[in-house]
Amino acid sequence: MTPRYTTAEEAVKLINSFDHVYIQGSTSIPEVLIDALTARASELQGVELYSAFAIGRRDAPYAEPSMRDSFIPKSIFIANCIRKAVNRGDAQIIPVLLGQAPSLFREGYITLDASLLNVSPPNSEGFCSYGISADMAVSAVECSKIKIAQINKQMPFSYGDALIHISQLDACVEVDEPLVEVPSSIPTPEETSIGRHIAELIPDGATLQIGVGGIPNAVLDALKGHRDLGLHTEALTNGVLPLIKSGVINNTRKRIMPGKTTASLILGSRDLYDYLDYNEDFIIKDVAWTNDPYIIRQNPKVMAINSAIEVDLTGQICADSIGPRMFSGVGGQHDFMYGGSLSEGGRTFIAMTSTSSKGHSKIKPMLTEGAGVVTTRSQAQYIVTEYGAAQLKGKDLAQRARALIDIAHPSVREELEEAACKRFGYRFVHTR
Predict the structure, then answer these.
(1) Which of 68, 277, 351, 411 is deepest in the core (most CB within 10 A)?
(2) Active-site residue, from 31, 234, 310, 386
């Protein structure tokens, strides 16, 4: 079948008023198609636009106040390009565990008329790759009536679920558009301390799930002396490359896809994207697979490392909002915290500096009013700050409070003690 090549302006004419449209995410937002669709705003009404984890180089143009009648943006994970719109009320977030998000499409909770994609040029057999963003794109394409794609010379070709034959695309637009790059964060001294605390608790032969930012990079840097580590993760970043190239991460002890690094989305530099291109050691999978706790648990010694905005003295973890103000989403934290806890020899970590950038303690007597609980107190195991690691599993509430106060910033420990005494009384006072 001959590929249907056309212009972006013609391609987006396949989208009609009141359609439901998925926009691919990660660092591969199809900006050329979005600009062409936004240019049609005066012709359209009530088009619902669905996105997930996505890092854009600008705010989403379809989420501007002037577009309210034309487009209704809905996000499954608040990324930088839509955060302002969500908090203005011009976009909405759909709370869902990321591993279960594809079921919204597959089970008909959300119907899709079209998907906008950013894919690699076809290989010799005619297959294009979603490259760095399989996550929700796999399920969205399955469930969309119309598939519109940028055929992007700069998109790497990855193996796994993230493939579509060019004959299945209803419209193709050739582009040569750079992907968004996410530079490696340089850990602060506090983050470096957190990285060392966590690395000391990770055994050789462990399977890692690790997130994005300074703390994950600090953990990875502290793992250089480890052996035979595996990687089964949601997001893959630059920080893993030195460990892969040195053989520290070799995936030899994984039970699920041994010898392969598995992820759902890629965030990094051009060097990482080039390393991924046609590299059969990397398998990029549907997020419903990577984040399935019953798949995660089959690997030995799963070490799930995630972050938080704040934690209360009982171990309740908020990771998606600052009080009532939405900041991100549930993401895959719950998926990996649960899967890691079920893994033989598995451990789960919530890593955070003891204070925010404004100097406020992240360990609090109670969560801020309006804050959401992403991970419940019953699932919390290790909470780690620059002052150490608090192991909460098996501890009662008073014992948890004591352990968390010990890793809080020294300037707030007295205040936290007073709050714990008031809440837990005799049992806390006599807990050591």
Answers:
(1) 351
(2) 234
